[in-house]
Amino acid sequence: MMAADPGESFRDAVESLFQRGMAARRTHRPAEALRHMRAAVDLARAHDDPAALARALHGQANVERDRDRNEEALRLYREAVRLGRQADDPLLLAHIVRHLGDVLREMGDLEKAEPCYDEALALYRAHPSADTLDLANAVRPAAILREALGKIEEARALWEEARNLYRMAGIEAGVSESTRRIEGLG
Fold first, then answer.
1. CATH no. of 12-88
2. What is the 3-state secondary structure (H, E, C) of the chain?
3. How confident is the model over 132-181, as pLDDT tens digits?
4. What are phi and psi of 47, to 5 degrees?
5. Domain 90-186, architecture per CATH
6. Do domains 12-88 and 90-186 have the same CATH topology?
């Protein structure tokens, strides 16, 4: 019988902490979520694994955003993006870059948010196994940003794409929002 790969066991532990943090986020327990995400970050740092650390940092950044600590979230997302570029996981990188764009947009830095959304969309669109809902959830904030920048035709095209993707994913709230936003563009 072969011994377990020590790298796999640490990755499993990081993933378990990440999942516990996500469960705590979903049930509105931010202190617990942050504790699990920080533990995942610490474990991933100790094993020098860029992909695991990028995922854990992304999780911690999401919790910081939930707590309205956008400066801290921004710092964590930026580190996660840097590490995500070293990993061979374009969908992980797409998720992180999209969330970096979200926090930049929320902080009012629209010009820095725009290339984040463009990169995330390119990564999702290029990946054959990208989830339809993940793509829709990336198209939506890109459309919001284009509206804020006064790029109405680009916004309209993105809202139409978002509506189609949400329809394919069976998310009626996304279809409704997209339709309202398209109608609001005139």
1. 1.25.40.10
2. CCCCCHHHHHHHHHHHHHHHHHHHHHCCCHHHHHHHHHHHHHHHHHCCCHHHHHHHHHHHHHHHHHCCCHHHHHHHHHHHHHHHCCCCCHHHHHHHHHHHHHHHHHCCCHHHHHHHHHHHHHHHHHCCCCCHHHHHHHHHHHHHHHHHCCCHHHHHHHHHHHHHHHHHHCCHHHHHHHHHHHHHCC
3. 999 999 999 999 999 999 999 999 999 999 999 999 999 999 999 999 99
4. -105, 5
5. Alpha Horseshoe (1.25)
6. yes
- Taken as a whole, the chain contains a residue count of 186
Token pair of 36 as six digits: 């699990």
Contact (CB, 8 A) for 143 and 181: yes
pLDDT of residue 2: 37
Domains of the chain: which residue ranges?
Answer: 12-88, 90-186
Say what the pTM is.
Answer: 0.91
